[in-house]
Design brief:
Helix content: over 70%
Strand content: under 5%
Mean pLDDT: 85
Radius of gyration: 21 Å
Structural class: mainly alpha
Oligomer: single chain
Low-confidence stretches: none
Shape: globular
Distance between the termini: 20 Å
Length: about 425
């Protein structure tokens, strides 16, 4: 263990301290839950990074995901030909997000729908939920939504639909926080395609990041908005709510159509957000040039977010040589979404602008979540559609949930940085 591992370990408590400073009820904090959540994260990371059996499972998961991605691209290669061939292929035209990464969302959405229809996904989610409930002593509904978000995204609110109208404010914050603090399996493939060429073992790291982020989001949510009410499902093991399709083919159709809707939503979001950011950057650049010629083109939203996240980036254990660039990538995610942030990371790695391998690993874990402004609107809208009577309550907890999700992603990066070494076999070099 070197100095950077110690910095990352200390960063966990720095982030907890930041959350405590902005807590709504500091005297009501459940420190047992906080400590249990941190210990659970550390234990999982220790198993993955340091235990030989854990490393073997990690490598097996990475290989399994890559093989599934090969299967997922069969349909897109048939439809789009060379446009769908990823970099490295004989007829590849380079990386094209729309034709190579987006179609995998349809495949994984259909796969998840099939697993739900067969009852496999419910059993897996129930198992994780049972563990969270027993280890952290949170409500059954919170455990269920945290477990669900390891595998699916905004649709996870459907699993607790019968309880949404009666959940406490703290529980509602947790629903949003764990949703934004993790990533869905169907978009995970998109990130793998983005980084696989520069980071061969990216799939395994993303899977472990999503797993580690669930307890982190629970911890940060319960610090920022502690429970002060009585939960209906406290101590109750809740089963996932699921409206089963009439047959297997109906499940495949519904899943694939859901994937198409997600692609359209992501595409619209990227077009709108990136266009607005470019417009704001143009305005900021003009203001900068009026102040000083040196500021022309240097004053951007990403740069401003980079300054905001710079101290936290140092707390993650990122070396000084990479801290400025990494802080801009992590901070930019808050505005431009994690899709663009991962592309920025891939470009930085390809161009050799990130010097230390641990910086790449830590950034990968820090970005593994939907913790950005656009996602907050999507998750709030999705939950409000299921429980319209809680719209006002959702608006009250949304910003705290986004802060909890952001801190959770950073905590996951700290945990990874605590155990990761430059000579690790999980680097993929």
């Amino acid at each position: 263990m070197d100095i950077y591992n110690l910095i990352s370990f200390g960063g966990i408590f720095v982030l907890v301290g930041v959350a405590w400073l902005f807590s709504s009820h500091r005297r009501e904090l459940n420190w047992r839950l906080v400590c249990s959540g941190i210990v659970l994260q550390l234990a999982l990371a220790l198993f993955i990074f340091k235990v030989p059996a854990g490393a073997k499972i990690f490598l097996w998961v990475n290989e399994a995901v890559i093989r599934m991605l090969d299967s997922a691209t069969a349909g897109s290669r048939f439809l789009f030909g060379p446009l769908a061939t990823p970099p490295g292929g004989d007829d590849s035209l380079g990386f094209i997000l729309a034709f190579q990464a987006f179609p995998t969302i349809i495949f994984f959405s259909a796969l998840i729908a099939v697993l739900y229809y067969l009852g496999i996904m419910q059993r897996v989610i129930s198992g994780f939920a049972f563990c969270f409930s027993k280890l952290l002593r949170i409500s059954g509904a919170e455990s269920l939504v945290a477990a669900s978000n390891i595998f699916v995204g905004v649709e996870t609110a459907l699993t607790i639909k019968p309880y949404l109208s009666r959940m406490t404010h703290s529980e509602l914050c947790t629903v949003l926080a764990v949703g934004m603090g993790t990533v869905a399996s169907n978009v995970l493939a998109l990130y793998v395609f983005t980084l696989q060429e520069q980071f061969p073992l990216i799939a395994g790291h993303l899977v472990s990041a999503s797993l580690l982020s669930a307890p982190a989001a629970l911890v940060m949510s319960k610090i920022l908005l502690p429970e002060t009410e009585r939960s209906e499902t406290l101590g109750v093991h809740v089963q996932p709510y699921y409206e089963k399709d009439s047959n297997l083919f109906a499940a495949i159709i519904q899943g694939s159509q859901g994937g198409v809707k997600m692609i359209v939503g992501i595409s619209a979001l990227l077009i709108a957000v990136l266009g607005l950011v470019a417009l704001l950057d143009l305005a900021l650049s003009s203001i900068g040039s009026l102040i000083s010629p040196k500021l022309e083109g240097a004053l951007t939203l990403k740069a401003l977010c980079g300054y905001l996240f710079y101290p936290l980036t140092l707390a993650l254990g990122v070396p000084l040589e990479d801290a400025r660039l990494v802080s801009q990538i992590i901070g930019g995610r808050l505005i431009v979404t994690e899709v663009v942030a991962y592309q920025d990371l891939a470009a930085a790695l390809a161009e050799g602008r990130i010097v230390h391998p641990r910086s790449a690993v830590i950034t990968t874990y820090a970005l593994c979540g939907f913790a950005h402004l656009a996602s907050m609107a999507i998750f709030v809208g999705g939950v409000c559609a299921l429980a319209p009577e809680r719209t006002r309550d959702m608006g009250r907890v949304a910003v705290r949930a986004l802060a909890a999700a952001t801190l959770a992603c950073l905590m996951t990066a700290c945990v990874a940085g605590t155990f990761f070494g430059s000579g690790s076999i999980l680097l993929g070099e």
